[in-house]
Amino acid sequence: MGEVKLVGTWVSPYTYRVKWALKLKGIAFDYIEEDLCNKSALLLQYNPIHKKVPVFIHGGKPICESIVIIEYIEEIWPHNPLLPTDPYERAMLRFWIKYAEDKGPSMWMVGEGQHKAEQDSLEMLKIIEEKALGDQKFFGGDNINMLDIVLGLGHWLEGEKLLEAHKLHRLHVWLKNFKQVPVIKEDLPDLDAMLAYLRCQREMSPATH
User: Fold this and answer.
1) Cα separation of 152 and 184, whole Å?
2) Which secondary structure element, helix H or strand E, spans residue 64, and what is its range?
3) Strand bridging mode 55-58 / 61-64
4) Where are the beta strands (DSSP E) in 153-209?
5) Which listed site, 73, 74, 76, 120, has its alpha carbon 20 to 30 Å from 82?
6) Do 111 and 162 form a contact (C-beta atoms < 8 A)?
7) Do residues 118 and 109 lie in contact, with contact meaning Cβ atoms separated by under 8 Å?
8) Can you say whether the dihedral through the CA atoms of 194, 197, 201, 203 is positive or negative?
9) Residue 28: beta bridge partners?
10) Cross-strand pairs, 33
11) Would you put residue 45 in left (φ > 0), alpha (ψ -120 to 50) or beta?
């Protein structure tokens, strides 16, 4: 099937999306850690447009953007599917993925001190909980699917505290369950170390005007 490589960085949730998808499917790959403060020639060669991670390389051909990469992985390696086989269910899953992507991290920005932004964030999370998750263990039912992977971003934003504090019980249980899946649990960055690293990077960055 060709050599598989992933260029990423340990603090990027988008890198982990691709890692999780590959590991859930049991696909062997070489991981290349990228320093975004000193971007490598490899990254600039394979992602000259955005110059960002992740970059997925299969048989020497690069693919960028985490959602596009996972869709590609699903097409090339259909075993252990991350998308439903039923066309309608697959379309609905893609709808919720787009909803989550359009809202992005703002979906989790409760407690940022801006009342309207906080209320909008809570409303988005309630919609996801009620309409997409329901009473299921995961968004894929008993198994993780692509929407679970996309919403795994909650770990990076201290999602468990947020969900518990605002009584979003089903989403709180979902995130705890998600982080206990062996493939996910063994490959989650330590939250304190990650936040400390990001704070350090912000302090080292020169002021801009």
Assistant:
1) 9
2) strand 61-64
3) antiparallel
4) none
5) 120
6) yes
7) yes
8) positive
9) none
10) 8
11) alpha
Instruction: Please name the amino acid found at residue 109.
Output: M
Ordered strands of the 55-58 beta sheet? 30-33, 4-8, 55-58, 61-64
CA distance 28 to 45: 23
Total length of the chain: 209
Residue 172 CA from chain centroid, whole number: 17
Tell me the C-alpha distance between 83 and 77, whole Å.
12
The Cα–Cα gap between 173 and 169 comes to: 6
Task: Assess contact for 13 and 156: CB atoms under 8 A.
Answer: yes
Low-confidence ranges of the chain (pLDDT < 70): 1, 104-115, 117, 198, 201-209
Which pLDDT value is given to residue 208? 35
Euclidean distance between CA atoms 106 and 116, whole angstroms = 12
- The predicted structure's pLDDT at residue 110: 59
Q: Is 103 helix (H, G, I), strand (E, B) or coil?
A: helix
**pLDDT above 90: percentage of residues in the chain:** 66
